[in-house]
Design goal:
The chain is α+β, with helices and mostly antiparallel strands. The chain folds into two domains: about 120 residues, Phosphorylase Kinase, domain 1, CATH 3.30.200; about 240 residues, Alpha-Beta Complex (Aminoglycoside 3'-phosphotransferase, Chain: A, domain 2), CATH 3.90.1200. Helix content is about 50%, strand content about 15%. The protein is built from 17 helices and twelve strands. A hairpin with a 4-residue loop joins strand 7 and strand 8. The protein is globular, with a radius of gyration of 22 Å. Pfam families: EcKL (PF02958). It comes from Culex quinquefasciatus (Southern house mosquito).
Length: about 450
């Protein structure tokens, strides 16, 4: 999960984006030469081939253009993929695209079962998002009107070959148009959260409209949750469950003696966590309100454009976990993972109402009936019914959001070490190393995670 950030991380000062961090350029190949070693990694030939394939489509002359690659993400930006920036040049002409591929390191690729979610993201860019855009345009809702959902990156090519363990998604480099990402270490503020609520409302509204008016087209949207398969089964499942159990124990340890009632609720949630995650992501538990959700609503998966330091537009990145689930999951994931207690005390109700108002407005424009298809009372019930999802995602995300990227482990090295320790029976040592790394920002974590637990209890979600 997590987009391998193609841009620099924005700063909190009145949401003014930071300048792009300077990445080390890694020369890889030209259009006539196979991909070669880039730093410590050899870039796969299929990634070069994918870029070479789109070049003529974008007006470059076959045999005359050159392709260079450079790093597109940093440590801690994502978990299950890698991002490179491809620069296509011919004379004075240039086109820069982002290339997202599965981990080059085999141990890391196998550990996270990343091919499953790359297949899903390719499906999103090649089928689902285009179908949503086309449906809106048929209804007279176009990009120019700025009332619909068109807020995903432009995709030049999406490719997936499971047996070969190959996948490449080539996207627009939004950094070149001034887009910046929020600093993951800082809880998201009002203006940035507001933009997300508007777009999540619109995203979900399109699903509700298509589900009702184009049921035959919408059948392809009824996708099972890939996170359950990736995180609860096989090797990656063992890693995830172990990490979640440690994180849950750490969170429970934050409670005061007088919070025994909450402690017992959390212990019960820990015991039923795996079954709960499967049920919470099952559409059968939320019909008739299941829609296509984004699935991975944490701060590194959004990128913003600004005017005079104020965010004016948001684009949603990383569609690897889009799935047919309750609309409440996207909201719970973001609000309890990426905002803090002060924000929720001031703005929680407003954010939920803003989301539903945005959904209602677009659904009506698309010919739907919000009072029948998803009234506000149904949203409140969905939030309460799925509230534990906010707990589990916060347990997973908050520890990493409180640790500086420089202190996070190298994912390739960690995967190799996991493979070695699993074979030698040294998993306890690896678990201890992970926990020691996570406790490097204990004060920040105690405040943020403690507020999550108490807020979830206050809302009646656990």
């Amino acid at each position: 999960m997590g987009e391998e950030a193609p841009v620099s991380v924005g700063e909190e000062v009145e949401a003014v984006p930071a300048e792009p961090r300077q990445e080390e350029v890694k020369v890889a190949a030209t259009s006539a030469v196979p991909a070669v070693e880039s730093g410590t990694k050899e870039l796969p030939q299929y990634m070069h081939d994918a870029v070479a394939r789109i070049a003529p489509e974008q007006g470059f002359t076959p045999g005359q253009f050159k392709i260079d690659f450079e790093v597109g993400s940093g440590k801690g930006d994502g978990f299950v993929g890698e991002m490179f920036r491809a620069r296509i040049t011919e004379g004075a002409r240039e086109l820069v695209v982002l290339c997202k591929i599965p981990p080059i390191n085999e141990a890391r690729r196998q550990q996270f079962g990343s091919m499953v979610i790359f297949e899903r993201e390719v499906e999103a860019y090649s089928k689902l998002l285009p179908a949503m855009y086309e449906f809106q345009r048929e209804k007279g809702v176009t990009e120019e009107l700025d009332v619909g959902f068109f807020n995903a990156p432009k995709c030049y090519l999406s490719y997936w070959d499971g047996p070969k363990e190959e996948s490449a998604i080539l996207m627009d480099d939004l950094r070149l148009r001034g887009y910046r990402m929020w600093n993951k270490m800082i809880p998201v503020n009002y203006e940035h959260a507001r933009l997300l609520m508007v777009q999540l409302g619109r995203l979900h509204a399109v699903s509700f409209a298509m589900k009702d008016q184009r049921p035959e087209v919408f059948e392809q949207f009824k996708l099972p949750d890939p996170m359950t398969r990736m995180m609860l089964e096989g090797e990656s499942g063992a890693v995830f469950v172990g990490m979640m159990n440690m994180s849950m124990d750490r969170a429970i340890g934050l409670l005061q003696p007088e919070e025994e009632k909450l402690r017992q609720k959390l212990l019960k949630a820990k015991d039923s966590m795996i079954d709960d995650l499967k049920n919470l992501t099952s559409p059968a538990q939320c019909e008739p309100y299941a829609i296509l959700g984004h699935g991975d609503c944490w701060v590194n998966n959004f990128i913003y454009s600004y005017k005079n330091g104020v965010p004016t537009e948001i684009v949603l990145l990383d569609w690897q976990i889009c799935r047919y689930v309750s609309p409440a999951l996207d909201l719970l994931y973001f609000i309890f993972g990426c905002t803090d207690g002060e924000f929720r005390r001031k703005h929680y109700d407003e954010m939920i109402r803003l989301y539903h108002r945005s959904l209602t407005e677009l659904l009506e424009k698309l010919g739907g009936d919000p009072t029948r298809q998803f009234p506000y009372t149904a949203l409140l019930r969905q939030l309460k019914q799925h509230g534990k999802f906010g707990l589990f995602m916060a347990i997973f995300m908050v520890p990493m959001l409180c640790v500086d990227n420089a202190d996070l482990p190298d994912m390739d090295a960690q995967a190799e070490k996991y493979k070695e320790t699993k074979e030698s029976g040294g998993m306890e040592e690896l678990d201890n190393e992970w926990m020691q790394m996570m406790t490097k920002s204990e004060d920040k974590y105690r405040k943020r995670m403690g507020d999550v637990l108490r807020d979830l209890a206050r809302f009646g979600y656990i």
